[in-house]
Known about the structure:
By secondary structure, the protein is an alpha/beta fold. The protein is built from 10 helices and 11 strands. Strands 7-6-5-8-9-11-10 form a 7-stranded mixed beta sheet. Strands 1-2 form a two-stranded antiparallel sheet. The chain has a two-stranded antiparallel ribbon with strand order 3-4.
Amino acid sequence: WRSSSSSSSSSSRGMATRVKGGSGGTTTERSRCSTTPASTSSSSGTQRTSQRCRCLGGISRRGFVVGHVLRGGTAVAATLVKDPAFYSQWPYAQPSDILPFIKSQAREGDAMAVLAAMQTFGDYYPTYFLHEEKAKILARLVKEAKPTRAVELGTFLGYSAIWTAMSLPLQGTLTCVEFEPKHAAVARELVRYAGFGEVVEILEGEGAQRIPDLKERMAPGEVASFVFFDHCKPCYLPDLQAMEDAGLIGTGTTVVADNVLYPGAPDFLEWVDTSMGRYKTDLIPADFEYDQVWKKDWVRPRDALSHSV
């Protein structure tokens, strides 16, 4: 967010399409596991991860690779060999059905193992959460911003909330708003299980309706340091404007939004476009996260996160 005194007066500067890399400085991060599983060769010559460790959220009870491992403290996709028995062993009919699988794969307090298990579950049941590529981008942006008060609209099952909580400085907090009560309940449990129950608060309801509650959690005159939008795409612009009007977003706030190209939020992008002078905005390209494999000839489209300051 740029105050009127610092807004650009030029209308010729269009929105950029990429954010340059870089840590944006150093900060103390919340602890995470860095154990790396070993790899061995199967009889067919395929590289498979055989070592079970507390950071490996993608090993089925049958013991072969079904998902994601950690390398250098980051969940990385392994060669996925789907186990047909997974669907009978871990049926998914309601949001809470993910919990037994996560808890069978990850130890309580091991956030990276929780995330890896969620990613594996999403490989079997395409699930509308941020997924790994975008999660890494979000984590980098949070680390760069070093927010003390972060807000997320659209939490789903808590995947992005856990990534954000891991990336906050030690004094930072995150308040989330999730519309669906069943999703909010699962997100609370997974956030707690990952070790961030005291850091993350999850409210239920529509984003615009909970703005007064978000405001109450700020000190007088305080604005949110970091805001992440990942809820209903037509709601992005009215909710952003409502947060601006309420004083939740102001000078120094970083605003990040997912799915701005696909499914898309064109009115939101127009509002935050650098040329409008309200924000300096970049687009960070990434694949769309929801793999709709049941559609004939489905090809995952390119998408982007917007990053506005």
